[in-house]
Every structure is written in C-alpha cells, then in structure tokens.
Amino acid sequence: MGNNLHSLVAAKALNDPAILIADALLIELLSRRLGVALSKYLGYYQQYPGGTGPVQIGLTACSYDSKNTKWAVSIPPNGAAAGLFYFETSQSISVVFSVTKSGDPTLGVFTVNLDIEKISAIGRAGYNLFSITDVAVDFKSKINEDPDAVKNSGLTAVEIARLQGLVEGSVAPTVLRNIFAEVPSIDIRSLFPAIVFKGTAELAAIDGGMLVIAKDGWFLDETQRCSCSASAPEVRLKPGVPIDDNRDGRDGQPVGGSVPISVQIPPPRNPPWPVETGVRPDVALYLPQPTVSAITSGPYPAVNDFASDNGFIGWSYDYSIGFMNARPSLTDPRATLVLTIEFYVSGSGNVSVDVPCIGRSTVGMLWATNREGGPSIIEFGVSPRLQSDGKISLVPELLSLQIQPFKVDCIVIALSLLSYFGPWGTLAAFVLNEIFKLVIAHNLPPVLNAGLRDAMSKQVWTLIDLSKLDVGAIFGKEQRLGAAVSREPNSLLIGLAGHAG
Question: How far, CA to CA in Å, does 230 sit from each of 225, 303, 384, 444, 453?
C-alpha cells in the first residue's frame, strides 16, 4: 500500500491535509508571473521631474527569459516558520534604463546598463496564496552618455550628472524591486479548489518540492461539489413473496407480516478503476483520513414521499428514506475508496372503504419499516479521474445495494368493514399483497433513485485544477497525463501519472 513519496508526505503532514508542489512547478508559476509584471514596465517612459519635465526615463531592454532563467526555491534550514521560503537566481541578467528627450526616445541623453548578478526574495505561503516580498537585487552598473546629451535634453552637464546618479542609485533598483512587488500571487485555491487552508501554512522540503501543510486548520469549499455531473444508475426493485398473517385482527392485536425485496442494479458504466498507481512528484494533494471522512460525510437528508389509491378500497402510505452513518474505507480493493451508507425506509398509513350511503370510512392503520432487520446498505466506489476540462475530480460508481425486508403491522379499527376484504381474506393480506407490491415495484424506486443521485453527487469534488497550469511547458508535450493515486490505510495521495506518447 502507498509508495515512498506518499510515506514521506504522510510522515510530515500526519492528520492535516497538504499540497505538494515541485520546485520546478513553483518556479515556472512564479517566473512566468514575473515575466508578465516585467512586460508592464518594458518600453514605458515616465517624464522627469514631476511627469512634465524635459526628459523621460524608461526600462528599454531586459534579457530576462522565464523559460531559460534558473531559479532556486528553498525553505529556512530550521523549518518553515511563518510559511517562509526563499526564491532566488544568481544567473546574470542585463537590464537597460534609457533617458531621452521627453516625447522623443530617438534623442538620447544617457543609458544605465545594469548587470544583475543575483535576485533574491522571500516567498510566503499565506492564506491560500504564494506571494513574493522583500526583494533584494545585486548588480553592477555602467553609464553610457550620448555625445549630444546636453543638446538633446536641454539640461546642463551638471544637471545630467545629477540625474545619472539618481537613475543609477535609486530609480533603476526601485523599478526592479517594484516589478517583483507586482508579481501576481499564486492562488493556491485555484489549483486545489476543494480544500481551503486557514491562516499560515507550514512548509516542508520534500523530494525536490515543497509540501504545504494546513497546520492552522482547513475547511471544505462546498461550491466544489460538482453535483451536475453525477448520475445514478436506475435501480429496479421487486417484491418477494410476503409472509402472511392470516388473522383478521379480531383479538385487537397487531397483525401483518414481512415483505422481502430483490434488487437489480445495472453493471458499472466505468471500466475498473486502478486502486493504486504511481503518483508523480510534480503536483499532488494529500488527504488524511479525517479529510476523507469530511469529504464523504454528506449531509444526507431524508427523502419524503407518499403513495395512495382512492379506489373503492382506498389507502395511503407516507414514508421517508433516511440516509446515515457514511463510512469510507481505504482498504477495499474495488475502488480508491469505498463508501458505505446505511439507509432505512419508514412510514405509516391507513386503509379505508367507500361504504354506500355512508361515505369513506377507515378500516385500519398500518406501519411499515425495514429497520428491524438491521440497516439497508449502499456501497459507492469513489476514485479520482482527470476530466476533459483539465480537472481531477472524484467520480463515484454504485457498487452494491442491499435492502432489508419490510416489516408491516396493521391494526383493525372497524371490524364490521372486514367483509369488504373477502377476495384477500384479511386486512393484513390486502396490505401485504396489494399495497406493498405496488409501493415496492412502482413508488419506491424513483424516490430511492433520487436519493442515490443526491448521495453520489456529494462525492463529486474538484480536487486539482490543471487548467490553471501550462501543462505542456511543465511536463513536456510528449507526456500523456492522467490521474494517479497512492493509498495507505489512513490517507490518500492524489496527483498525476505521466505516460510517454
């Protein structure tokens, strides 16, 4: 059960959910955002001084390439206090700031060429965000003055010299720091939408990646239940031969019997799920048993319905189907997790006769439930699947359905009206052979199917959203990706499986 990566994650996260992001993936996300922030400044000029001055200053060239610049991610050696990590590069990057005549970039004054030797920043894993702060830039600078600087700018040589010092010592490094400050944060929830982290996450380095652990608490985002995509197979029910009570109730005691039910469900529509596959260390979600239990816990409300007939011998039966005690198992070989839900049917009603010249009169009352023989059982298999929209979601399948027999009790209220039940012999025989054959075969199935659809829809969670990633850039065009899962008795690790071709 499980694999080495799963064991390492579980040893650090324990009973808290966590996300695993490879260094390469985090770097790609952050550096791509840096390129976007840089593009906002590149080629943009600001007049100096005060926005109406005789010259303009702009960032006119930068050799930074997000795909080819090598960044490094690390966490503090003494642990991940306050969710901090370091993000830096020591690769040389050249940057050019140009000062020209206002409104005419062809009339140069001077350029400041920066040779950036190192960029370092502090990253923070805060409330569902990765962000960059506290940027430091180490660089060497060189000023190249245009021979016609005075003529082009209308400034004196002394004013140009002062401006050179200002751009070299203040404007250029400030702009670079501002670019980093404007790097958009990574929304962790956009990648892992179902599990919402509270407060500051705890970080841990693991297998060339970063483990983000919800040590400050978490909750489920109920909007990530994809109920519209859940569909339950049609369940067919057939009443068995009832056990009749032939007494007519003249002794005043309850009479009745038991009605067994046979269940037919269609074969699974999905091919067999792999219970366990290799999980790549690129991006994954760790779900300990408490989180798995929360995901599958429902709630599962009761479904209410009634059946009736207004014929000469009329009757009504109001009942509810209650779902309870959802128990997920991570050891069953039939699916990644097998969810067992108990349910019962319970209700009451009456039987009446339309007596000529008198009107409708109640003959007796009935109570019917299938709770006495123990709970009825639904079993769902739930496994992660990579959908066509790039989202890894949990997908349920109905594995089995077992319904306990109905225990039916009747009490006769009007003994004088029992003569109308001649074809059936007794009130109990009518209730067992007429009412409950109809209820079980016709009324109960659509209500039960509605309850099944509701229960299955509560299992369909979006766990990972790959549509927010440039999958081809990260994993390579030759990779064919699918959902993967590693399973231990008390936790799941859900992520990607890569296949060549």
Answer: 10, 18, 14, 21, 7
Of 65, 61, 119, 68, the C-alpha closest to 95 is 61
0.85 exceeded by pTM: no
220 closest CA partner among 260, 192, 248: 192
Q: Which of 364, 204, 373 is nearest to 286 (CA)?
A: 204
- When computed from its CA atoms, the radius of gyration of the chain, rounded to whole angstroms, is 36
DSSP string, 70-105: --EEE--TT-BGGGEEEEEE-S-EEEEEEEEETTEE
Closest CA to 69 of 54, 91, 53: 91
Phi/psi for 290 (5° steps) reads -60, -35
State the Cα torsion 429-434-437-439 to the nearest 10°: -120
**Is residue 97 a contact partner of residue 174, using CB atoms and an 8 Å limit?**
no
Q: Which of 1-5, 73-77, 147-151, 299-303 has the lowest mean pLDDT?
A: 1-5
Assess contact for 482 and 463: CB atoms under 8 A. no
CB 101 within 8 A of CB 109: yes
Per-residue pLDDT tens digits for 243-254? 877 776 666 677
Handedness of CA 169, 174, 179, 184 (dihedral sign): positive
